[in-house]
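Input set for joint prediction.
Command: fold jointly, output tokens.
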Amino acid sequence: NWRPGELETCQGRDALQREARRRRIVLNRSQKDLLEACFKWNPYPGIATREQLAKDTGISEPRIQVWFQNHRTRQLKAQRLKSRRSVGEQTQVQDQPLLKTQEYLGAGHRKNRLYLTRSQSSVLVQAFEKNQFPGIATREELAKETGIPESRIQIWFQNRRARHQKRSKGAPVNSLADAPDVRKELTVQQHQNDPSTVPSRSHDIPPSNSFIINQNSCLILYTSFVPWDPFAGHANQAPTILVVQPTQTVQGLENPHPPLTPVNQLPTVLPPEREFLDTETPLCPQDQGKCQDRSEPIEPIDLEVLESKNYLQFKLDSKKQWKDLSHQDITFFIEWWDECCQALIAEWEPPEGTL
DNA sequence: TTTCTAACCTAATCAGAAA
DNA sequence: TTTCTGATTAGGTTAGAAA
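tokens >
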């Protein structure tokens, strides 16, 4: 049951000609738990979240991305099936999109764009001319040769095939299109290591490992309080996730759905209480020296900290919303907060027997 | 053998730099 | 503004691991 034109595609090709795929990974229970918990509150994780998940699970970021892609598909499919069953087969049901968080809607959601050099382009173009559907071995070889991550090479081939097909179907071909880029010879690593060479995105708020900003509240995610080996397989060594839920009043403002479900299904380890609750300036750990030179706490007019069950809740002043804060305020606060979290994590000693 | 799901695919679209 | 192209999405297919 091939579709017209499918002979041109990988799926229509003789299986014998197809190059081998990547070896399939098998997720363990705690990796799945962590991904599923994260999916519940954010089905569209941005690059910062995906990288944090990669760290915490030991799964590479591209595999995390694929897992989310597949999981969304299954989720939407199941959702549709469920709603059609409940309403009746004959009725047309409006599909409910998955909830997108501020992380998705804001800037900094995507990976930094890759800029290929002339030589990188020509290597890829040559490879494409030989084989439009390289398997994992070829892609890894190309990755080694060009210094481009394998996952991006895969994307490059996908885009190239799509555009190649479009053009061969009669669209006018611009001779410059897809030609090796004439930009100066910056390596990928240069772009990645030197932020000044990455195209500016002045409105960006830096991605945070521990923050998600919603319109009216901020959600704080702690991970990695427990040094955790994803492959160790001990149930009590699951990663720690602490999601801070916006208050009910805040939730009610704009979104009919609670934006997040607090994730407390996983073992939760709070940071040492003294760090947050007993100080005059609860937003800054006492050991402020670790927060570089920022010994001045953020003026707490915008934020307050509340203790509630096992959650720490930060709530904006009722009159103030995140959108009222300047970009600089937020950027400063996030950077500062990440540093404090890192200092805290570095300092934290797990209870005996948890390792 | 069947079921589940990671890996991979296309097509459409977004997004940002360059022309 | 338009063009180009890397990144992301939805959703379908393939194929390997587990039941």
